[in-house]
Give the backbone structure.
Amino acid sequence: METLRVEGLTKNFGGVTALNNVSFTVETGERLAIIGPNGAGKTTLFNLLNGQEIPTSGRIYFFGQDITTVPTYSRAHLGQGRSFQLTTLFLKLTVLHNILLAIQGTGAPRYQLLRPISAYKHLYNKAQELLESVALWEKREELVQSLSYGEQRRLEISLSIASEPKLLLLDEPSSGLTAAESADIVTMIANLGSDITVALVAHDMDLVFGMAKRIMVFHYGEIIADGTPEEIQANARVKEIYMGTEEEA
């Protein structure tokens, strides 16, 4: 089944073309990594997929539905989840309150304004399940600002999967993490259900090749390679972009 289809996606910022006529599809359950040099258009693509930006031209389809101009919050309710390169947590709330807000925000209890959240036992059960999956349940009563950066990154990803997304967009999930913490992120992604489609932007090649079954390489707003990790590693154009040519040297 096709989760995502992008057709002729272009985004201009004034006289700068950040994305140029990009087209691709992503199948349900796929593990896709998007790589490329800084300024290649990767984060712009995520902003378009998630609704932070509207394309100059082109269309985006999510399970066959045209979501090109659908707002971000509506895409979340349709089944998109996203984590950002910089953490977007409530630092002065506890770990538990952060995850409960994320769970409640996309469920029916968000409409029950006069009923305390403590009345919803199933929300707490789900919060415990999510926090245990990222080894943070024991720290549930701690303020988020007291967590290490690696713990905050794990919490951020748990928030993005709290709504049980069909498509999970991860923007540099291992940014600022140690090698061991990055390996934990790979394990987290590997443990996600096969019904969740994952697309991530990353510069961490250990993360990319440890997680991805398919890799797309962007350069100057265009896809210049798309294939398996083995095909990308052997691609001469990719080597030229990342390693440079003898003449350039």
Q: What stands out?
A: The radius of gyration is 19 Å. Residues 121-133 form the longest helix (13 residues).
